[in-house]
Amino acid sequence: MKKPFVELENISFKYGSNLVLNNVSLKVEEGDFLALIGPNGSGKSTLLKIILGLLKAKGEIKLFDEPISSFQHWEWVGYVSQKSNAFNTAFPATVKEVVQSGLTKKVGLFKRMPKDAKKRVYDALAAVGMEQFLHRNIGELSGGQQQRVFIARALIAEPKLLVLDEPTVGVDIKNVQSFYDMLEELNKKHHLTIILVTHDIETPSHQISHVAFLNQRILFYGEMEKYNQLPKEQIYEWYGHSVRAV
Ligand SMILES: Nc1ncnc2c1ncn2[C@@H]1O[C@H](COP(=O)(O)OP(=O)(O)OP(=O)(O)O)[C@@H](O)[C@H]1O
């Protein structure tokens, strides 16, 4: 049986009097590649913050089969936020330095770097296809390349679960497919469980195993194959009027 990594039961959350999440239940199991989809403002980032323990919600949350209140192994959870690639070209850090900074989560801020730190930086960059950029300044890279470097920074702590908030923002369309191919390799070859948040209805599908469609409530949760069988009109309706049928 697959191990449960994230279990949410009847999660509700308000900002003041604004109900943003209403009775959300969801399960992510070992090996899943879940896309959390929904229009802008549907509560996706809020739900991520709840899973990451940054916001407290009503309902039950378990991480790796343990109630979140007593969960300690935060190094098992890698997170790349939406804004992590908002660098300007003058930012004075190399790719190597950025990736290596991810090790502090594992070894602690003032502890010595492990002897194999160099190899681990290289391996993490190789896993996202960026090893040739080791000595480049992070600010000189494209949005998509920076996003890969930040994923490598999360990978170096050897998480079991990788959480990505809108990772293809700033990646141009021709590179989105190869970005998803890279994530598929992390999921299948490196056995990493992935939660990817996106408002993009055209999310490439064959790499993803499960979909949760959120709009304050969970409107759909199931395997990608089943999601693909839903009538397109249904999905557009869930999105509201902002998305045109193609
Ligand atoms: N710190 C906050 N204080 C008050 N309201 C907030 C706060 N953060 C988000 N909201 C509101 O909560 C709702 C859900 O926001 P959230 O960022 O979770 O949505 P989202 O699905 O991630 O959106 P997007 O796709 O645009 O990133 C929105 O109406 C938003 O305005």
From TrEMBL:
<dbReference type="GO" id="GO:0005524">
    <property type="term" value="F:ATP binding"/>
</dbReference>
<keyword id="KW-0067">ATP-binding</keyword>
<feature type="domain" description="ABC transporter">
    <location>
        <begin position="6"/>
        <end position="240"/>
    </location>
</feature>
<dbReference type="Pfam" id="PF00005">
    <property type="entry name" value="ABC_tran"/>
</dbReference>
<keyword id="KW-0547">Nucleotide-binding</keyword>
<dbReference type="InterPro" id="IPR003593">
    <property type="entry name" value="AAA+_ATPase"/>
</dbReference>
<protein>
    <submittedName>
        <fullName>Metal ABC transporter ATP-binding protein</fullName>
    </submittedName>
</protein>
<comment type="similarity">
    <text>Belongs to the ABC transporter superfamily.</text>
</comment>
<dbReference type="InterPro" id="IPR050153">
    <property type="entry name" value="Metal_Ion_Import_ABC"/>
</dbReference>
<dbReference type="GO" id="GO:0016887">
    <property type="term" value="F:ATP hydrolysis activity"/>
</dbReference>
<dbReference type="InterPro" id="IPR027417">
    <property type="entry name" value="P-loop_NTPase"/>
</dbReference>
<keyword id="KW-0813">Transport</keyword>
<dbReference type="InterPro" id="IPR003439">
    <property type="entry name" value="ABC_transporter-like_ATP-bd"/>
</dbReference>
<dbReference type="InterPro" id="IPR017871">
    <property type="entry name" value="ABC_transporter-like_CS"/>
</dbReference>
